[in-house]
Amino acid sequence: MTPNSLLHHVTALMDRHAPSLPALAHPPSGMHFLRHTAPTGQDATVYRPLLCLVLQGAKEVCTSSRTLRVGHGQSLVVSHALPVVSRITEAAADLPYVALVFPIDLDLLRGLAPDVPPRTGQSPRDPFSISLCPGDAGMKDALLRYLHQCESPEARRLLAPITAREIHARLLLGPHAVPLQRLLWVETTASRIFEATREIQSDLARPLVVGDLAGRAGMSSSAFFEHFKAVTGTSPLQYQKDLRLLRAREALRSTNEKVSEIAFGVGYESSAQFSREYARKFGVPPRQDRELQAAE
């Protein structure tokens, strides 16, 4: 594989299926491809467990307490669902930002974990659930083979699942191993915070009582708050608020529900408060955001 083989293949797929779009969901592989020909403004979204490999250009990923720059050739792994704000910082018409996103199957990782010895001698100095590392040649080769195998029905059925398993195994053996292993081993702080984030996501309209979450995680409220912020980069209440606003934005753009109904549906008791916090996060109030999206 030449150093740019994966970049060329992703570029060809986008040229074929989405020549004028900045993003392509690729159903045969389950992957997403991104391409921007100019820097972008900030975009708020939720990162699910994923591997993102930047093939060209650079982007910035921010939580309320962290900012990461992901540049050409670097890979980023997210182990928890995280509300983030990101923007493309390096892109041009002749040298666009290009990246691929491979979703991580946590069940598949857990199935592989017993065969992977824990990394000893590496203390979890930073429990943050986003890790940033240089790209790995073996991983790039596996991703390219996986994409090729997804092009025909026979190879997609017979070979692609084997290579998907290899990609997950490489995640547990490569430079991103430590944060993923912390998540997978039972009763680690990372795994308990993961369960807490899942509970918050399961019912965003439910009032959040941090003490109850802490008790179910087997921690004091202060310890839980500290560990939650260390892992997710934000506080439990801010985490819930960000998810509520992102869920509301999705509903605004995909349904005809009234703004007040959407606000109440994600847990706001006051539509005025919802509008203020929505505008603070996205730059425009909800009704205007809906109108702008419709105009596009």
Q: Can you summarize this structure?
A:
With 296 residues, this protein is α+β, with helices and mostly antiparallel strands.
Describe this structure in words.
With 296 residues, this protein is an alpha+beta fold. 48% of the residues lie in helices and 20% in strands. The protein has 13 helices and ten strands. The protein has helices spanning 5-17, 106-112, 137-149, 153-158, 160-173, 177-184, 189-202, 210-216, 221-232, 236-254, 259-265, 271-282, 286-295, and strands at residues 23-26, 31-36, 43-47, 50-56, 58-62, 67-71, 74-78, 82-90, 97-103, 130-134. 32% of the residues are buried.
* CATH fold naming of the largest domain: Jelly Rolls
SSE order in H/E notation?
HEEEEEEEEEHEHHHHHHHHHHH
What global shape is seen? globular
User: Which CATH class of the largest domain is shown?
Assistant: Mainly Beta
What's the number of extended β-strand segments?
10
Strand order of the largest sheet: 1-2-9-4-7-10
Mean pLDDT: 91
The CATH H-level homologous superfamily of the largest domain: Jelly Rolls
Proportion of residues in helical segments: 40-55%
Please, what is the oligomeric state?
A: single chain
Uncertain stretches: none
Query: How many helices in DSSP terms?
Result: 13
Please state the second-level CATH architecture of the largest domain.
Sandwich
Taking all Cα atoms into account, the compactness measure Rg is 20 Å
By secondary-structure content and strand pairing, the structural class works out as: alpha+beta
- State the end-to-end distance: 40 Å
Instruction: Domain count, please report it.
Output: 2
